[in-house]
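Bench log, entry 3. Co-assembly request; chain sequences pasted below exactly as received.
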Amino acid sequence: MNKILIIGCGLIGSSVLRAVHKKKIAKKIFILEKSKNNISKIKKLNLKCQIIKDFKNEIPKMDMIIFCTHLSNYEEALKKINKFLNKKTIITDVGSTKNLILQKIRKKLKKGVFWTPSHPIAGSEVSGPEFGHSNLFKNKWCVLIKEKNSNKKHLKKLNKFWKKVGCKIVMMNSQQHDHIFAITSHLPHLIAYNIVKTALDFEKKRKSNLIKFSAGGLRDFSRIAASNEIMWRDVFLSNKKNIILAINLFVKNLNAFKRDISIKNSNKIIKKLTLTKKVRKKIIQLKQDVNLPDFGRN
Amino acid sequence: MNKILIIGCGLIGSSVLRAVHKKKIAKKIFILEKSKNNISKIKKLNLKCQIIKDFKNEIPKMDMIIFCTHLSNYEEALKKINKFLNKKTIITDVGSTKNLILQKIRKKLKKGVFWTPSHPIAGSEVSGPEFGHSNLFKNKWCVLIKEKNSNKKHLKKLNKFWKKVGCKIVMMNSQQHDHIFAITSHLPHLIAYNIVKTALDFEKKRKSNLIKFSAGGLRDFSRIAASNEIMWRDVFLSNKKNIILAINLFVKNLNAFKRDISIKNSNKIIKKLTLTKKVRKKIIQLKQDVNLPDFGRN
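Structure output for the full assembly:
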C-alpha cells in the first residue's frame, strides 16, 4: 500500500501505526487527531507520521482509512472527510460494537463508498499513544464484518492487512459480533465497574477502609474498571439491547446462586464452581490466556 | 520456636512451611495431611517436615498449630487433636471467613485452650503444595482477629510470627473481618464464577462458540473462577449473611446501571466510570497492585 490514514491516534491507533511501519505495510501514514495532547505526545514519541491537513487533495489518494477514534467521534470525523472519499479506498474501523454504528454510518456515507468494519480484540485499561506498541495485535483475533452488501475486494484486502499486522482473522456479521462481545467483553467490563462501585458504596456506608484489602479479588476487577470511560460509555450505549439481555441473564444466574447459598445447597454450588473451571481450561487450550498461576503482580 | 504443626499442606500450608524454614522460625515442622496425593507431592518436592503420627505425645509439645485446611475440614481435624491440646500452644488458622467458624470451634474446643484466628491475604487460583513458595506472604496483609476474650499473649506471638513470615499486620474483630472480605474478596469471586456461568449458558443457548473470543475481558474473570471449588463453597456458606447483603447491594447497583444505559443517561454513566477509576488509583497508592498496564499475558 502507498498511503494510510489513521483517524484517532491513541492506544490502538498508535499501535496500528507502529505495526504498519514495522511490517512495512504502507509507505506513508497520515493521522487525523483532534486531541492536542495526543498530538504533542506523538511528536515527543517521534512516531513517523504526517498530520493530514489538505483533505481535498490527500483524502482521495488514501489506500486505506482506519477509524481508531471513540465510537461517538465517528460521525464528526466522517463529516470532515466524507465528500472527499474515493470508492477505491478501503474504509474500516476498530470499534468494539458494530451493528448500530454500521446502520448510522451507512446513512451518512457518501454514495458508492464502502465501510468494512474490523475489530481487533486487543487493548488494555490504559489509553494514549504512549502505551501503544507494534506487537499489540500479535496472535489476537480480528473480527471482520461480512454482510450481504459487503465489498468482497475490500474484505480480502483487509484480511491481508490485519494478518500482516499480526492478527488471526474471523468473519461474522455485525449482529453475531454484537451478541458475542456483549458476553465476552462488554458484560465483564460493566460488571467490573459495578463491583468497584459497590465496594465504594459499602465503604461509605460502613465507614470502613476496605480498599486497602483489595488484594483478595477486588484488585483484579479494579484494573478492568480503570478502562477509558468515553470508550466504554460508547460501547454500552451502542450495544444497549444485547448488553441489557446479558445483564438480565447474569442477574438471573446470580439470584439462583444466592438462593443456593441461602438454602446451603452444597452440591449445586460445587457443581457450579466445577463447571466454570472447565471454561478456564478451554480458554487456555484456545490460547486466550497463559497457564501460569497468578499470585498478584509485585 | 521449637515445634510447629501445619494442618493441611496445600498451597497456603506448604507456603507457610517454606517460609518458616527460610526464616528459621521453628526448628521442627510437623504436618497433618489427609490427602494421599498431597503427601506424595510433599515427598517428591522434598519439603522438610515430618508427618505427625503420635498425637498423644507430640501434640502437647507444639508451640504453634496452624489450620491451613478447608474450613469444612476444621471440625474433623480438631476432633483428632482436641484432647491432646495444651493451653500454652498458640492455635490459629488461615481461613477466609471468621465469625461463624469461631463460634463453632469455641463450642468444640477443649476447655482452657485458645483459638486465635489469622487471615493472611495471599493466594492464587491454583491449589496444591507444588505451587507454594516462601515469598507468598511477602508484603501481604495478615488480619489477626482480636476480640474481648482473645489471649493477648498469643496475639502478640502471632503478630511476631506473621511479621517474620513477611506480612503486615492489621487487627479487627471477626464481624468486621467478614463484612470487609465479603466485599473485597468473596463477592468478586462469586461474580467471577457467575459471569463465566452466564457465558456458558449463553454459548449453549446461541450455539455460538464465544469462549475463543474471551480475551476482551472474560479471560480475566475465568482465571479467578478457576479457584478451588471446596475452598469457595466453604467461604460462601460460612459467610452467607454478609455475602447475601453484598449480592443485594451489587444487584441494586447493576439495575441502576442498566436503567442508565436503557434511557441513555450519558452523564450518569460517565460519572460512574470516572468514579471507579479513582478507586484504581487508590489501590495502586496503597500498593495493592502495580501500576503497569496489562495487555494480556503472552
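Chain B has eleven helices and eight strands. The first helix of chain B runs from residue 11 to 22.
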